[in-house]
Write a structure and sequence with these properties.
This protein is an alpha+beta fold and about 400 residues long. The chain is built from twelve helices and 20 strands. The strands form four sheets. Strands 6-5-14-15-16-13-18-17 form an eight-stranded mixed β-sheet, sandwiched between helices. A six-stranded mixed β-sheet has the order 8-2-1-12-20-19, sandwiched between helices. The chain has a three-stranded antiparallel β-sheet with strand order 3-7-4. Bound molecules: flavin-adenine dinucleotide.
């Protein structure tokens, strides 16, 4: 294309994955991040086999496999009755079917390993404290504009600045994100603080009316990640604000004590108001494209936002390697990614409504259908998602 680097706005999981993927193809990039230090807040993240397929292409397969925590099952419980609904086993058969495991990992570890790969490559220049304001372009260059820094030119620009991307705002102008009103609280506790009868080596979802609780072990089982959510109809996009345990408890008065006790054991709770956006069919403007949450932000219910960002990174690097011009590379990247990512966005909303939060008859239907499914049926149902690697739309 040219010897100019590709500019990547945002040094989150998506931005660093993009830089790592490009470096694997010998392509230089500059990552510009608004924060003064790179890092990730929040705690655990679930990683489907589709993300593991990507790790090797991004050059981080071995360290990711060494750092991830391998759980035995995805376990679904009814939070109202305290009863088991179903389990999806994640053992040998799952790995054989999908060619990779399902695991959980601390966000900071995932981010750190991508960052280490970027640094080792010698092809990624990372600049913190750089807040992108917008972009412009001409026939040969894409330019990033900053608050307080000189402009930066590159062969193309990737907007990976998450939910409130300035590049998306300029390109799409679709206003603020959609606020779901679902409020999520996160806490990480030492394993000894977790109720003894719930110290399962599983990603467990307690699904209740307008609320749910998720927990799984992290850091080799030394801690448990707690993520609990209820409909609170907050209309402000809050991210990471500390809250009291009593505030968290308010949304869970109506569920079984066995599930409620999990919240009593949490501490240092932090709050997020969940947002997403409608899927869109164009996120490319000439030499500029979006990636990760900037392109297709989704509710957390499929646990796939970061996995999709890593798939985007694999696809982007592949397209840059195989096209003569950056414009055609980005067009193909978008064509390969938009249907799949829109499908995950839409399904994330549906899953929230029909699996995570239904009550009465709808909850009965969920329990009836899901409790009757065999492991093989689950694997078939999930194959479109977990069987792909970012290169199949
Ligand atoms: C409660 C919860 C649980 C989740 N669980 C999972 C899960 O289990 N599995 C999964 O795959 N996904 C999960 N996700 C989704 C996942 O966290 C996101 O999809 C993923 O972090 C998106 O990465 P990103 O790099 O695209 O955006 P972000 O992580 O938002 O990173 C954007 C980066 O850009 C920077 N930035 C922003 N604006 C600018 C600017 N103007 N200039 C320069 N830099 C800027 C930010 O500081 C940040 O570093 C979950 C999300 C939530 C809320």
């Amino acid at each position: 294309m040219t010897n100019l680097p590709i500019l990547i706005a945002g040094g989150g999981i998506g931005g660093l994955a993009a830089a790592a993927g490009l470096a694997q193809k010998g392509v230089r990039s500059i990552v510009v991040e608004q924060a003064s230090q790179l890092g990730e807040i929040g705690a655990g993240i679930q990683i489907g086999p589709n993300a593991f397929h990507c790790f090797d292409t991004l050059g981080v397969g071995d360290p990711m496999r060494a750092t991830a925590v391998y759980i035995d099952a995805l376990r679904l419980m009814d939070a109202k009755t305290g009863q088991d609904i179903t389990q999806i086993p994640l053992g040998e058969d799952f790995r054989k079917f999908f060619g990779n495991p399902y695991a959980v990992i601390h966000r900071a570890d995932l981010h750190k390993l991508l960052l280490a790969r970027c640094r080792e490559s010698g092809l990624v220049d990372i600049r913190t404290g750089h807040r992108v304001q917008g972009y412009s372009q001409d026939g040969s260059t894409a330019i990033l504009h900053f608050d307080g820094y000189d402009d930066l030119g590159g062969v193309g620009v990737i907007g990976a600045e998450g939910l409130n991307s300035a590049i998306r705002e300029q390109m799409i102008s679709d206003g603020p994100p959609v606020i779901s009103g679902h409020t999520t609280y996160r806490s990480v506790i030492p394993a000894e603080q977790m109720p003894e009868d719930l110290r399962w080596n599983a990603a467990t979802l307690w699904a209740g009316p307008k609320c749910h609780i998720v927990h799984y072990p992290l850091k080799g089982g030394r801690v448990y990640n707690l993520v609990v959510t209820y409909h609170r109809d907050l209309q402000e996009a809050i991210s990471g604000r500390p809250v009291s345990r009593d505030e968290v408890m308010q949304g869970f008065e109506h569920i079984a004590p066995i599930a409620r006790q999990i919240i009593e054991h949490g501490d240092n709770w932090k709050l997020w108001v969940l947002c997403d956006r409608e899927p869109i069919s164009n996120w490319v403007d000439g030499r500029v494209a979006l990636l990760g949450d900037a392109a297709h932000p989704m509710l957390q219910y499929f646990a796939q936002g970061a996995c999709m960002a890593m798939e985007d990174a694999v696809c982007l690097a592949h397209c840059v390697e195989t096209h003569e011009t950056i414009e055609s590379a980005l067009e193909t990247y978008q064509t390969m990614r938009r249907v799949r990512t829109a499908r995950v966005q839409m399904n994330s909303r549906l899953i929230g409504e029909y699996i995570y939060h239904p009550d009465d008859a709808k909850a009965e239907v969920r329990n009836h259908v899901m409790s009757g499914m065999t492991a093989e049926e689950w694997y078939d149902q999930l194959n479109w998602l977990y069987g792909s690697n970012g290169l199949e739309s």
